[in-house]
Write a structure and sequence with these properties.
It is built from seven helices and ten strands. By secondary structure, it is an alpha/beta fold. Strands 3-2-1-4-5-10-9 form a seven-stranded mixed β-sheet, with helices on both faces. Strands 6-7-8 form a three-stranded antiparallel β-sheet, with no helix packed on it.
């Protein structure tokens, strides 16, 4: 997967631009409301979803598999933001705990065991009463059921890109034991879920 993202990175930059995603804006407001001071962003990319948290006074740490993306983040947003180079599947990259974790449009690119590990790793890196927010594509997306069938609700949409499509039942199954307390439907040019969990929430 690393080679795929490196080869297509410039195209993705042009497609996404530098404006933060809708879910990042919503999460920033939510984190401000909850008094979050430091944020971990697994799959930070070139930083387009990071700057709004920093502008709001939060310290941001990222994890990114693409060296090209890290170089772009440094170029556009400076060198004072820690970004670990590596895969989110190799978390944790340190023993620091975070008040907030924001994971955008990443979890649905992983297989079942990787998703379970990422959710648990993020939960374990939350401070007491910390919050983690994930965005994930839903079964309402026009791409659902398209491409090569991989496994239940998972399809290879493009070469090297396998996507798992969520519904509320699968969200409950995967996030239910890690403080799930709210699921919101949002539009990110495709239908997404905004999934919120709290450390210690039953």
């Amino acid at each position: 997967m690393t080679e795929f993202w490196e080869a297509n990175f410039i195209e993705k930059q042009e497609m996404w631009g530098f404006e933060p995603s809708h879910s990042a804006l919503l999460t920033k407001d939510f984190f401000i409301e909850k008094g979050v001071k430091n944020v971990l962003i697994p799959g930070i990319g070139y930083g387009r979803n990071a700057q709004i948290f920093r502008d709001s006074g939060m310290t941001v740490t990222g994890i990114e598999i693409s060296k090209t993306a890290i170089q772009m983040a440094t170029k556009h947003y400076g060198t004072d933001m820690t970004i670990y180079h590596g895969s989110v599947t190799d978390m944790p990259f340190g023993n620091k705990l975070y008040d907030g974790i924001f994971c955008y449009a990443l979890i649905h690119l992983l297989d079942s065991s990787e998703r379970q590990k990422l959710i648990l790793d993020c939960y374990n890196q939350l401070s007491k009463k910390g919050y983690m927010v994930f965005t994930a594509i839903t079964k309402e997306a026009p791409t659902y059921g398209k491409g090569k069938f991989v496994s239940k609700d998972r399809y290879e949409i493009h070469q090297g890109v396998k996507m798992y499509f969520y519904d509320r039942k699968s969200i409950q199954a995967e996030f239910g034991k890690t403080g799930l307390f709210e699921v919101i439907e949002i539009d990110e040019n495709q239908p997404f879920f905004l999934i919120k969990c709290r450390k210690g929430e039953k």
